[in-house]
Amino acid sequence: MKLFCFLLLLGFVISIQSKSQDKTTSPIDIIVIQPTFPEKYFSVEDFGAKEGGVEKCTQAFADAINKATKSGGGYVTVPKGKWLVGPIVLKDNVCIKFEEGTEILFSTDTEDYLPAVLSRHQGIDCYKHSAFIYANGATNIGVIGKAVLHGQGKTWWDYRNAIPKSEDPFVTLMEMAEKDVPLSERVFDDINKTLLAPCFIMPIYCKNILIEDITVKYGAYWTVNPVYSENIIVRNVTVQTIGEYGKTGNGDGINLSSCKNVLVEGCWLNTGDDCITIKSGRGIDGYKKAVSCENIEVRNCESLKGHGGVVIGSETSGGVRNIYVHDCVFNGTDRGLRIKTARGRGEAIENIWFEDVKMGSMVKEAIKIHMPRYTDRYPAHPLTRMTPRIRNMNLRNIQCEHAGEYAIRIQGLPEMPIESITMEDINVKSEQGILLIDAAAILIKNINVEPKEDAILTFDNSSNIIIENMGKSDKTILVKGKGSKEIRLVNSKLNRNKVVYEDCKNEVSFLISESTNNEK
Fold it and tell me: Coil, helix or strand for 361?
């Protein structure tokens, strides 16, 4: 009966995963329509822009955009060459189109990015310096062309580093959010005292967005960061925030924040932080906004350096659901696939698919899914509206040449286990094996893990686990905690004589061989 209930918990995961076998269809309903623009062209040169990268062309770009939107829309064209600009503000039905070989240098005069504009900083709404490319409430906008957009971010980095940690303006913003200070009063526009660095590209409350073919380098902070927006395509974009120029602090690549109906494809990222991330707001501010990030497809992307190849979280207070990541390659990131949240973030991360992913050498885990990020696991906390949840996930056909720590690490909370995960057809060589802490209703099928250290499987206060068709190993299986129970091996070539129990209720019932094929 307990096994039957466990399979019912997994039923959602398995039944929907079967829909993803045809790679022409997605296991989730994602409708993304590429925006189109009138065949009208407005060259920035006709509005007074001077090529050479010395004279600022901010006003000429703005005049061309205003003329285009008032004319019903079209393309604002930027000829090949070097152009120096301040913030570019997109408006309805306007697409900035760069000629191949164009280089855009963004001004290092921070006053150019004032007055402060409506933004979201690490999941909390505020007013701060304008993003380098910004739009608020626009429909049908685009940034396209094989151009290099260089943020020249060192000036911003220096200002950020000069602010004492004891006076961190982000701490002030978090306190404002907790105290429900009105948004109109959350203004951070003093470069010397209250700087919250701007993102490179931030459309906020926008619809129908196309970002294609551009190379974006070394901004002040996060790079491509749509917020509260929908129907978005980010295609063939290169992001570099670490390299010969230096390292952008918090230089995330593509951050989707409370967005829906998004396609990210063919992107190449080399960052000093997370490469592609999916978020929905931080703490009580994100919970009150209650705008989820949902219906996202990420495909055919490649990540090099960075904290994670594709990451969900940790700002997840609006909820994250219906995410499909497939046919991606990661090589050199700290982790390949990561989901992170924490107590106080609230809402659910659910209905997640990762499949057909190849990883080279990972610095840490190949796959990490964890909840106690900022606090210790114990003591268990009472359940509240701000207790996070992670459930209903599928991970299939994932290969990793080497993980510097665990192959797979899944860690929930004592008061809220991570539950209903199917992992199938996964091969990882790693320093450590698979670790499950506070996890429930987990199916691990057709997995080969080759850890250098002794334990291949560790279960800590985890229950309703099925290990099916796991490759042969003589490594230790460690079962810990009074909450560990109903752990079953099915057709797995593991050595039952290498099971070690620690602080368990009843050793005999925790690991039950259900096949004569199991090694004795």
Answer: strand
- Give the pair of three-digit tokens for residue 482: 């009074």
Instruction: Give Cα separations from 341 to 179, 282, 345, 462, 520 (angstroms).
Output: 22, 10, 7, 19, 40
Residue 393 has pLDDT above 50, yes or no: yes
Cβ–Cβ under 8 Å, residues 174 and 197: no
Tokens of 501: 């129990």
Q: Residue 399: beta bridge partners?
A: 358, 427
What end-to-end distance do the CA atoms of the chain give, in Å?
26
Kindly give the pairing relationship between strand 94-98 and strand 74-78: parallel
166 Cβ neighbours under 8 A, 6+ residues apart: none
In sign, the C-alpha dihedral spanning 356, 357, 360, 361 is negative
Residues 102, 108, 111, 113, CA torsion sign: positive
Q: Is the distance from CB of 268 to CB of 301 less than 8 angstroms?
A: yes
User: What's this model's pTM, rounded to 2 decimal places?
Assistant: 0.93
Q: Give per-residue pLDDT as tens, 298-344.
A: 999 999 999 999 999 999 999 999 999 999 999 999 999 999 998 98
Report the candidate in 59, 1, 74, 3 with the shortest Cα–Cα distance to residue 441: 3
Quick check: helix, strand or coil at residue 184? helix
Dihedral over Cα of 129, 131, 133, 135: its sign: negative
Pairwise CA distance, residues 144 & 100, whole Å: 10
Q: How many helices (H) and strands (E) does the chain have?
A: 6, 39
DSSP 307: S
pLDDT at residue 15 above 60? no
Phi and psi at 183, nearest 5°, equal -55, -40
92 and 136 in contact (C-beta within 8 Å)?
no
**DSSP 3-state assignment of 86?**
coil
Question: Rounded to whole angstroms, how far apart are CA atoms 157 and 162?
Answer: 9
Could you read off the pLDDT of 179-213 as tens digits, one per residue? 999 999 999 999 999 999 999 999 999 999 999 99
